[in-house]
Amino acid sequence: MWSFFARDPIKDFNYEILPENQEKSGIWTLSRGKRKTTGEPVSVFVYEVSQGTEEQTQLAKAAFKRTKTLRHPNILSYVDGLETEKSLYIVTEPVTTLAAHLKLQAEKGGASDLEVSWGLHQIVKALSFLVNDCHLNHNNLGMWAVFVDRAGEWKLGGLDHVTSNQGESTSLPPPKVINPDLERYDPPESPGGGGDKWTGDVWRLGCLIWEVFNGNLPRASSLRSLGKIPKQLVPHYCELVGANPKIRPNPARFLLNCRSPGGFMNNSFVESCLFLEEIQIKEPAEKQQFFQDLSENLDSFPENFCKHKVLPQLLTAFEFGNAGAVVLTPLFKVGKYLSAEEYQQKIIPVIVKMFSSTDRAMRIRLLQQMEQFIQYLNEAAVNSQIFPHVVHGFTDTNPAIREQTVKSMLLLAPKLNETNLNQELMRHFARLQARDDQGPIRCNTTVCLGKIAPYLNAGMRQRVLISAFSRATKDPFPASRAAGVLGFAATHQYYSVVESASRILPTLCTLTVDPDKNVRDQAFKAIKSFLSKLETVSEDPSKLAEIEKDVTALAQTGGSAATWAGWAVTGVSSLTSKLIRNAPAGSEAPPAENSPVPQSAAGPAPTNTASKGVQQDRSYVSCQRLCPMDLAESFSPTPRSKEGVRLASDYNWDGAEGKSATSDLFSSVSQRSTTVKNRKCFTNNHAFTPSGLSKAELAKKKREERRKELEAKRAERKAAKGPLKLGARKLD
């Protein structure tokens, strides 16, 4: 009667068993399952009492007890269980059988020796724990008793026949009674026929090694044929399957032998795995060195191991271990193995948090490697959580960070909203172009502005591009002037024919007498392009609408300016860094060889001079040999004087009288250049004269000559008048 009101315990079980992909493992059926509340994946071992014999039921109950009580990192992890009159359920971490795992790996080309070496290391370590620490014999070691988790790590299971090795009596039947096919895995000696307590288990370990490399063991005599067993493992394998049980090594001894120099388990993968197991007790310096070396080894590690074993440790090291920038390189390498959903879930939150770090090494490493994760960032996160931190790099005192911040805008621009792109970013670009003392950064700013032009709205393009590129053509750094010319050419579709004729061509024509041949060459090419455009309209005015169709085109919402094949900022400017170290700031260099200034018939052309206090960059000679694609890569920055340059605080950033603040800034920079020209400075702001001296040096030389002339005249007057008399008045 009471059984009618009793509740079925299966209904209260917290786990759901999935019917697909069921595997047979001894007397158990291995099924996939999940936790009902969270959906967390698990594995469920099910034994039906009605389908088994009394001996099998006895073994199932013994296995349930052993699995629940034995805890070790290399033994199958028990999560939950349920025992009823009809069935037994053991819930463990999600695993698959070793046989199924090796079959899957064989379809992909076979399991690597590195993976097998670590797997065997784990099984031997678990066996050593049972034999030496727990004083137990496994008695059931084989392919059917080894399982593999999501990370590819091997776990020892099949605890059905575990017995004590201290002489206690047991009523459990041996494996061959339950399954006669297992008799071929028994050692040749009779039970109790001599040898140590572990001799039977290490013999079965030898059988397991043979099957891992050669497949199913047909008979015991096949153990004599080595097959595909690696040479490094052969001598130790032969000890395991030796006929004399007294020479079979203890599992711990076998492990030491294989870990000796030149041994099968002495490799970078096993070393890395052992370090990860003990990483919580390692010193910070050891962790830093490990993560630095890890990047080089990750390419040879199994993919699942990187995803499920290395990645959690990297995230933990950043969150709680203060590992810093050193984890970024291995983190992004592992990220390549993740799906888009996994990347969003696991790595993006960490990256967003990294951008708020004040560690300069962290910030510059993030900027350098942004290309690896930018596609996973959504626009909301970029505008609200990343861009506000990135823009601090524009004002950083470290030139390398400013340079990488500018380059990162090529990747961030397609994801920026209207305010951040057309106002905030343009404000920083204008300040860099006007004030930055590093030539390469001014050059990269010009290059980047041209490359992100398709993303600017039409009004901003109209106000900013011509002013910015005109300013670049008057920069003392030759590559910046070349970048300005190339900027005009690459964005030609955004200018009306009136602007081309009245504003752009006059600016380009002044560069036809530039001291730098590369700048002159680019100027002539650009002039021909714009003239061709004007000639086309002049010949057929009906084509005006087609030519100016992009002038008011809407901004691009995604993609990239892929049409800029000939003008690119690529990679990290390592050569720039080298030149920065080698070139002392503030030094001057003579004009480049083979770069004469063309002279007109009326006389020598005016020499381009720099703005007051601005010196020529030291890499002037070096960049003559560079092609346009190298513009942003190989320049040596030199400090610019702040005299004569308006500070950022002097500009009206708020945009008074309905005019864009950024437009005011770029326009004011252009007006400042005109003022310099009105002061009778030369056209292109170069401080070098045809004599080879800079303007400052020439002025200093003239002052010195004038001083000597005055001293000579005073001496002549004194000599003519003779010595002064007492009381005489000195007239000069």
Structure description:
- The protein is built from 27 helices and eleven strands.
- The strands form three sheets. Strands 1, 2, 3, 4, 5 and 6 form a six-stranded antiparallel β-sheet that branches. Strands 7-9-10 form a three-stranded antiparallel β-sheet.
- The relative contact order is 0.05.
- The termini are far apart.
- The protein has helices at 2-5, 54-69, 98-107, 113-133, 175-178, 199-214, 234-240, 251-259, 268-277, 284-297, 303-320, 328-335, 340-346, 348-355, 360-368, 379-390, 399-412, 418-435, 439-451, 458-472, 478-490, 497-509, 517-539, 544-547, 574-582, 661-678, 695-721; strands spanning 15-17, 23-25, 28-35, 41-48, 78-83, 87-92, 95-97, 136-137, 146-149, 154-156, 163-164.
- Helix content is 46%, strand content 7%.
- α20 (458-472) packs antiparallel against α21 (478-490).
- The protein has 732 residues and is of the alpha+beta class.
- A hairpin with a 3-residue loop joins β5 and β6.
- Residues 1-311 form the Protein kinase domain.
- Belongs to the protein kinase superfamily.
- Pfam families: HEAT, Pkinase.
In short:
The protein is 46% helix and 7% strand. The chain has 732 residues and is of the alpha+beta class.
